[in-house]
């Protein structure tokens, strides 16, 4: 089983960029499909993007992030990434990474504001 720690969140201006990282410890990272979720205040966590264990297949929630966000992974570094460009105020949320069906990180806050 893996343990996950996210980083890279913070305060950014609209139109700016951030890269989130999710470092996995433990064993088996390269065998897990990985995903990013986000949670808006007062809302349930929602899916953002996912990537297959090999990294060859990705999927995004919809056009609200596709083209702006890119999910990737480095299995040698046991790290998952989310590159977020052209950020909007409505992207403000806590972002979580997930390994497999039910292993979560602690989350990292992203705030997009002027």
Q: What do these coordinates show?
A:
- By secondary structure, the chain is mainly beta.
- Helix content is 0%, strand content 52%.
- The protein is built from no helices and eleven strands.
- The strands form two sheets. Strands 2, 4, 5, 6, 9, 10 and 11 form a seven-stranded mixed β-sheet that branches. Strands 1-3-8-7 form a four-stranded antiparallel β-sheet, with no helix packed on it.
- It is globular.
- It starts with a strand and ends with a strand.
- The mean pLDDT is 96.
The percentage of residues in β strands lies in over 45%
Span between termini = 40 Å
The rough form would be described as globular
- List unreliable stretches of 5+ residues: none
Q: Structural class, please?
A: mainly beta
Radius of gyration (CA) equals: 13 Å
Order of helices and strands: EEEEEEEEEEE
- The count of helical stretches stands at 0
Q: What's the structural blueprint in terms of helices and strands?
A:
Layout (H helix, E strand, L loop, with lengths): L1 E6 L2 E3 L5 E9 L7 E6 L6 E6 L6 E3 L8 E6 L4 E6 L8 E7 L3 E2 L3 E5 L2
Parallel strand pairs: 2-11
Antiparallel strand pairs: 1-3, 3-8, 4-5, 4-9, 5-6, 7-8, 9-10, 9-11
């Amino acid at each position: 089983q893996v343990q996950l720690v996210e980083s890279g969140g913070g305060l950014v201006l609209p139109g700016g960029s951030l890269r989130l990282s999710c470092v996995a410890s433990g064993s088996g990272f390269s065998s897990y499909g990985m995903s990013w979720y986000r949670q808006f205040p007062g809302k349930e966590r929602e899916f953002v993007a996912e990537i297959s264990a090999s990294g060859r297949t990705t999927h995004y929630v919809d056009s609200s992030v596709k083209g702006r966000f890119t999910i990737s992974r480095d299995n040698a570094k046991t790290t998952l990434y989310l590159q977020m460009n052209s950020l909007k105020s409505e992207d403000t949320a806590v972002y979580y990474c997930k390994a497999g069906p039910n292993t979560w990180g602690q989350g990292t806050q992203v705030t997009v504001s002027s």
